Amino acid sequence: MKKLEDYVVSIPDFPEPGIIFRDVTSVLQDADGLNLAIHLLMEKLEGLDFDVIAGAESRGFIFGMPLAYNLHKPFIPVRKKGKLPRETVSASYELEYGTAEIEIHKDAILPGQKVVLIDDLIATGGTSKAMIQLVESLGGIVVKNLFLMELAGLNGRAKLEGYNVDSVIVYDGK
């Protein structure tokens, strides 16, 4: 039986020399890899009390939706600024060369709701920290930050100190 890591294609020196790019699309394009990814993410949620799953655009949608469907939970999309049609709240975060902004519908999370945040990858933790700020600004409680892959060498967990952080695959480097 293959491990999930076997489905991830690693591309050396992309986007620049010395970086190993972990390509999640190779997991998606293999039915067995995708099935295994969803199964392993679901295992990470076993026994956890929560109300809602929220996922970051766009790969958080890919992994969050099947989890929400299988667990019969609502799914809340966290989108890039300007993509949601109703009243929103937003949060900014740092990128390598600048900033970005994400937003969520103002009525998406109710006060006291327990929320699982999902994305494909944690690197520096910026997107995840911004999602936490959005949920908490609406009165929600983040009970878990769940990722398919983690680049531990970029120390993203440090930005999420005090929160429950879990990853299916952890790569030591960047």
From TrEMBL:
The catalytic activity of this protein is classed by the Enzyme Commission as: 2.4.2.7
Which part of the chain is the Phosphoribosyltransferase domain? 36-145
**What pathway or pathways are given for this protein in its record?**
Purine metabolism; AMP biosynthesis via salvage pathway; AMP from adenine: step 1/1
Any one GO biological process? AMP salvage
Record Pfam families: Pribosyltran (PF00156)
Question: Chief localization class?
Answer: cytoplasm
**Compartments reported by the entry:** Cytoplasm
The record's keywords, sorted A to Z, are: Cytoplasm, Glycosyltransferase, Purine salvage, Transferase
Q: Does the keyword Transferase apply?
A: yes
Catalytic activity entry:
AMP + diphosphate = 5-phospho-alpha-D-ribose 1-diphosphate + adenine
- What are its GO cellular component terms? cytoplasm
Q: Which InterPro entries match?
A: Ade_phspho_trans (IPR005764), PRTase-like (IPR029057), PRTase_dom (IPR000836), UPRTase/APRTase (IPR050054)
What's an example of a GO molecular-function annotation for this chain?
adenine phosphoribosyltransferase activity
Subunit structure, as described in the record: Homodimer.
**What is the role of this chain?**
Catalyzes a salvage reaction resulting in the formation of AMP, that is energically less costly than de novo synthesis.
Write out the similarity annotation: Belongs to the purine/pyrimidine phosphoribosyltransferase family.
What NCBIfam families would the database entry show? Answer: apt, PRK02304.1-3, PRK02304.1-5
**Could you identify this protein by its name?**
Adenine phosphoribosyltransferase
What's the source species for this entry?
Frisingicoccus caecimuris
Q: Which gene encodes it?
A: apt
